[in-house]
User: Fold these one by one.
Assistant:
Number 1:
Amino acid sequence: MINSLLRYIFAFILIILVQVLILDNIQFSRYAVPFLYILFLLILPFETPGWLLLILAFVLGLTVDLFEHTYGIHTAATVFAAWLRPGVLKLFSPRDGYMSNTRPSISDYGLGWFLKYSATIIFAHHFFLFYFEVFSFHHFFSTLWRVIVSSAFTLLLVVLSQFFVHKPRTE
Amino acid sequence: MKNLLNLIYKYHFFLLFILLEGIATSMGIRYNLYQKAGFVAFTENISAFFNESISSFSDYFNLVETNRKLSLENTILKNQLQRVYRSDELFFFGENDTLHRQKYFFTSARVISNTVTRMHNYLSLDKGSDQGIQPEMGVVCSEGIVGVTNGVTRNYTSVLSVINLNFHVSAKLKKNNYFGTISWDGSDYRTVILNEIPYHVNVAKGDTIVTSGYSAIFPEGIPVGTVEEASVENGSFYRIKVKLFTDFRHLTYVDVIRNLQKEEQKKLQSHD
């Protein structure tokens, strides 16, 4: 229990550091801006209670906002994504539900399931984020294009990150 | 009472979501509507620490370009000095010089973080209030206009970049002094939009745009860019696409402009 708690704290710090120290400093293009930090929300255990999910999302978004000088924008988008997560999990749940002792990962539920699950949440998060940032529907299609390209980029990084995670047990 | 508690318990997930989302969106809306200098100053201290260490590393990659620009600027300054000496004028005046009325004072600063891909782009500088920088001072580089300082801590400053949706500055056509407002439309970090130029004015591609000096933040004549495209919109005004002189992807050193007579100018202008 303590062990897994420590692992999530470590993951939180690592993901934030990768986001603000590396990704925020590499400017690939105006259209492709990856927000990998949402990964933390994706990998939380199935049993995480709703209230904890929302509070963690709030803290996660606020931390990113602090570094990016965008007060409230990332927080709002991340809380929104956290609110959607239980519904998305229910929508894509396998026939017998989620087994205990498993985590939302490629190794436990396969690539297809993971892509569906994370793509939905990433797209919702980015959609909220980019439109809230522009704060109008004035540039509707150029913003939508940014949402799609950036979501694809984030999804790619999220999937890649799955192969870096050490698998402690398989039984 | 018990029913109410039950209800809250039943819908606690949704209620908590509404609460947190409410806090976050009101923060975001306030941020979108006006700049919160106080909050910027608070968070600047934290993020500046990280950014400075990255910047000191990435500066090496820009050394060649920076050297070229510095030597170019040196040449220009030397030329000016030559002219000054020949005309027997004094070039450097003290800051509190009441005789010569020096109006602007420049402070050099290094850029420690910078973004170009967002809708609200900011820079951070490694100088702050200890070095005489205050909010609402103009920032320029050797090529042209960069932005306006908005949050200042003792040793760091955050700068609202020209390529930020909240940025506005008064600018004019250099050749005939017609003035308008520069703002950014969020589409490309190399171009800004000049509005409010009446359509009877002769605007040609390649015309130079400079600051007008009406705002007490920038002196008159700071280069902004050249006209790339002018189209008439809504009848009587041009919408002019201006190609910026400043390359925001390669900013390393900038100058912060302190207007020594700002209070005086603002006091007068606030009466009308």
Note: Chain B has five helices and twelve strands.
Number 2:
Amino acid sequence: MKRVQFSSPYLPYLFLLPQMTVVFIFFYWPSVQAIQSSFYLEDPFGFGATFVGFDNYLEAFKSSHYQQIARFTVVFTILVTVFSLSIGLLLATTADTVIRGSGPYKTLLICVYAIAPPVAGLIGMMFFDQHIGPFVTMAAWFGWDMKVGIDYVDTAFAMIVVAVWKQIPYNFIFFLSGLQGIPVSVREAAAIDNRSRLGRFRTVTLPLLAPTAFFLLIINMTYSLFDTFGIIDVIVKDKAANNPITLVYKVYMDGFRGNDIGGSAAQSVILMLIVLLLTVFQFRFIERRVHYN
Amino acid sequence: MHKTKVVDHLILLFGVFIMMAPVVVAFMTSTHDALDVHLHGLQVTWGGHFTDTYHEMLTKKGGFTGEVTGARMVMNSFILGVGFAVGKIVLSMLAAYAIVYFRFRMGVIFFWMIFTTLLLPLEVRILPSYDVMTKLGLVNTYTGLIVPLLASATGTFFFRQFFKSVPDELLEAARIDGAGPFKFFIDILVPLSKTMIAAIFIIMFVYGWNQYLWPMLMTNEESFYTLVRGIKQILLVWVGSQIPEYNQAFALAILAMLPPVLIVVIFQSWFIKGLTESDK
């Protein structure tokens, strides 16, 4: 904090008022309501609600459909995270070694960051379209009769491809800035000690990039869990019937299409706990990283 | 040594190819007419129908109710992007000013209350948020579209960080010269933060422009649709017609990505700096 500060009995409150009003009405109120209604069974016709304790939670956990979606969410998150992180890392390390022309490469590689997930989903859908999609034609060369939107695995495949494509630039930006933060003296010393580029990468670069990688790991997990909503929605088009969806999409479907308010709220709270866990994990790690420096 | 360089360039070129090819194909296809795309698939060459496609997409009344045009959606997207960015800057500058420059007992508590909003993304509280909006009668309004999105702490942190780096001597000098809290804020702090404000503005504009889930919940009247929000519905109508209008669907996608992509490309260094420094 500042050594010198103003002191006034009412001014700081006045300055905080707009932000706090918005935060209270649009953050705390709904969050509390979500927790509250997760313990109630609401009448679908709006005739009050009955307290049911943990029933909504138990119902979610026991439902085989919910379990299936949870399993898909885990697989989806792992695949998207692994692929977008490793492709981003490969491109960043390569861009870091190239001196001439690295500017245009960088610009072209980060463009896609600015594209909204549903727009990425739309472009993806066109590439996986039954009539005009080049990916469907290519798959046919290998005898793969790809039916995105109808076949479970094929739809999952398309979702993962689009989600990875959209996330590569983000990882690229962070890995590259992490790499460029490694001091020249360290690089030179490593170059003298180890002739092989791969060896150098494994013993010097990778450990130094570990904090960035860990940070990105958490960010990519939250991305796969939440920010992919737009991609999934455009690909599934509200017809979740036989299509893979993630947990967030199920909250949306149950709440807005199925009118299961208590169930949807309980699922929201489960997701809140997952995010909280991820965030706490992240902060603890960042704290430790501060000590290293 | 020479060999590895060639390999490096090949890897990067391949990377550029997978990132950019879909965008280029989307644009090229949008310059063909619908029948052409229907018969021959996606295009990689210039089709010569650029003006037709985009003119029709911008002016034709589309959607289910036939009352929304592309131009209207462009306008709504700008309202959301600019409104969100300006709102974010005003709210968070004021809040950060109070937290950094004033000594008051509740300061720490307020700080943590704002901080907590970072823990729970909108996606996990959509239904209750929607409920609150119905109670307040804000469904299908620009206020309902913009204001609730301001309920997160990102901007406040940006400015808090920045204000803390401003030298203490400035405030001391200003106070000796008799400047009060308002004068100090407007005459010294705001001009000092100019670059910071610009950087946050572009990041927030892109963020607002690209919003999907919230506009989807808040606006079911098509006259309030933003480009990004309209994508799915418009898509269903256009691609579901006799000859699917893929070209217009692509034109819509191109239009929806153009402003944010341009901003990121033009202000690249600011953008990267703002991004990598704020997210940590």
Note: The two ends of chain A are 21 Å apart (CA to CA).
